[in-house]
Q: What sequence folds into this?
């Protein structure tokens, strides 16, 4: 559609680029989670789901060749291969629109037009940031849950609050449903059991954000002492979750279990154990304002800067600063959840991320000629398409202002980084972020 089809009052606004600048301003990252994602272009014509393969490392060689076996064509060597793993990004289409009636808005047409663009931009930015947050936390909740109902007698089936991270194991680098030969070691209460099946509840009663309640089936009976409501259930491949005072799960958090510098430093230590690369020299810590306030009240934190408040940037410039290996980024989009057992208290969840914790896949065809003809008013801003449609109603009075984005987010796994290749590494499936839970 040509710009000549728009009302004369709007043509100068569009031609001078005011509308696009409003959209650009609103799309600046205000929230943060999307900023941690590595962006990759999702090529045209390859379907809606893209599976990527990551190559691992081979174990170190610390044993010398035995001279007596250094013979024949193989010199006594056995061929080795490196491990691989796969992760998947799925495309989805997200969009929203606003109508502008030229007649009812004629008094302030230009400002209303720009205001709609700004509000659309804020909506797009917040929507993508929440999609990034949801994908990030879904992976790093994985394998950490608790028993939901006490067994009457020892038995193999245990109801749990959240089955994420327990439904799949990696077999030759490919995510495979738990069952049969693809079992998983899971600690229930204080003892390990072999998980052989997972069933999702028909009615989801999970208390975790985005959680999925279900029943775990083990290869041997679980004792009543282990399968008591509230006991911790942890997979051998569970993501790292830090809690004050060594609490085993969310429901075990108590009043006074607030965020401290020690908990954050423990999270940094786990990331460094797993050789997670930093983001411009430090790890990003996303936290809400209450978590930030608790940190400033922590004695260890205050003592670290005692006598140096005139020089340190933390107190002078707020929380977006680099120190102790962390860059603190306040956000109002952090998960805040009512405590599952203590009335009147909430659970807050800062998350510390390293490079590659999240991947954003942007569909390459969003602005192609067959989607966005040359005379259409479509602008790509920070990977989001802004669309302004001319009046095509019978009275030629209603303009549509819309945005859309085609893409997806996923948290890649790191199973090939393990103690055989990096001696300090853990066995967690997802290693590039550490979630913290505390009372706030």
A:
């Amino acid at each position: 559609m040509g710009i000549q089809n728009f009302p004369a009052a709007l043509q100068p606004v569009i031609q001078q680029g005011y509308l696009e600048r409003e959209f650009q301003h609103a799309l600046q990252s205000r929230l943060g989670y999307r900023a941690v994602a590595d962006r990759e272009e999702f090529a045209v014509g390859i379907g809606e789901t893209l599976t990527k393969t990551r190559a691992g490392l081979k174990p170190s060689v610390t044993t010398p060749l035995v001279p007596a076996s250094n013979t024949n064509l193989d010199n006594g060597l056995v061929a080795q291969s490196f491990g691989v793993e796969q992760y998947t990004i799925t495309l989805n289409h997200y969009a929203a629109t606003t109508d502008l009636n030229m007649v009812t808005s004629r008094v302030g047409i230009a400002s209303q037009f720009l205001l709609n663009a700004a509000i659309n931009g804020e909506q797009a930015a917040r929507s993508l940031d929440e999609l990034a947050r949801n994908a990030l936390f879904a992976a790093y909740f994985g394998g950490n849950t608790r028993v939901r109902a006490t067994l009457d007698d020892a038995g193999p089936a245990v109801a749990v609050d959240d089955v994420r991270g327990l439904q799949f194991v990696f077999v030759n680098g490919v995510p495979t449903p738990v069952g049969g030969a693809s079992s998983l070691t899971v600690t229930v209460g204080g003892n390990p059991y072999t998980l052989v099946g997972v069933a999702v509840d028909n009615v989801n009663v999970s208390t975790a954000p985005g959680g999925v309640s279900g029943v775990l089936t083990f290869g041997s009976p679980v004792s009543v002492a282990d399968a008591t409501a509230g006991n911790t259930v942890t997979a051998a491949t569970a993501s790292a979750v830090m809690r004050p005072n060594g609490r085993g799960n969310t429901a075990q958090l108590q009043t006074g279990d607030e965020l401290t510098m020690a908990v954050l430093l423990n999270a940094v230590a786990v990331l460094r154990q797993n050789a997670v690369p930093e983001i411009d020299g430090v790890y990003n810590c996303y936290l809400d304002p209450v978590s930030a306030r608790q940190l400033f009240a922590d004695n260890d934190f205050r003592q670290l800067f005692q006598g140096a408040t005139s020089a340190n940037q933390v107190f002078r410039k707020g929380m977006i600063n680099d120190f102790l290996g962390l860059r603190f980024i306040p956000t109002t989009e952090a998960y805040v959840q009512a405590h599952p057992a203590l009335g009147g208290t909430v659970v807050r969840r800062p998350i510390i991320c390293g490079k590659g914790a999240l991947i954003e896949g942007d569909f390459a065809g969003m602005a192609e000629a067959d989607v966005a003809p040359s005379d259409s008013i479509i602008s790509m801003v920070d990977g989001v398409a802004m669309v302004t449609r001319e009046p095509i109603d019978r009275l030629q009075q209603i303009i549509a202002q819309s945005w859309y984005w085609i893409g997806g987010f996923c948290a890649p796994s790191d199973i090939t980084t393990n103690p055989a290749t990096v001696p300090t590494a853990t066995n967690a499936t997802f290693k590039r972020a550490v979630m913290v839970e505390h009372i706030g």
